[in-house]
Amino acid sequence: MKTRLLFLGPPGAGKGTQAARLCEANGMSHLSTGDLLRSEVAAGTALGQEAEAVMNRGELVSDALVLAIVESQMKNFSEGGWLLDGFPRTVPQADALEPLLKELEQPIEAVVLLELDDAELIERLLARGRDDDNEAVIRNRLEVYREKTSPLISFYRDKDLLVSVHANGSVEEITKRITEMLS
Ligand code: AMP
Hints:
Layout: E1 4-8, H1 15-26, E2 29-32, H2 33-43, H3 46-56, H4 63-74, E3 82-85, H5 91-104, E4 110-115, H6 118-128, H7 135-149, H8 151-158, E5 162-166, H9 171-182
Parallel strand pairs: 1-3, 1-4, 2-3, 4-5
Helix pairs in contact: 1-9, 2-3, 4-5, 6-7
Bound molecules: adenosine monophosphate.
């Protein structure tokens, strides 16, 4: 199975849930920039204080800040592979990732795009009820995804790395679908 992966997709598509399951089952490192940022916020660090207001508006934190976090975490990557969840989220982040992976001599094997209709995304996000999950912020996050992150779909398709998976159905069904696409 391919074990050096990126997860791409709109907020609410289930990236975090599926990433955790896949990493657990295959001994891969799960790097979620959203989770790392939320722990910085919870710990009240300077970085967390800088990120909190931006996250609560549903905007993206700066590329520089996210890259600093990712770079520091990449040292701890498991031999069994890794999954970057919610990163990169902009073309400049994707460009910056390339030399880092080149240095590690660990190229990306596949980019998994989780796809779901807006109506279902909004329903799932409202049910989740995180701080940044009220309706106005959700709409902004979808807009930001479309504008800043969705260009990564053709970016990775052009590199022949993109694998699309429908993110509807049960958690187990979706995991099975992803695993099949990666084997
Ligand atoms: P997530 O848990 O992936 O939905 O991320 C929650 C929030 O963290 C996002 O709405 C952004 O504000 C911020 N964030 C997470 N990852 C990134 C990233 N790669 N670039 C910029 N902001 C990010």
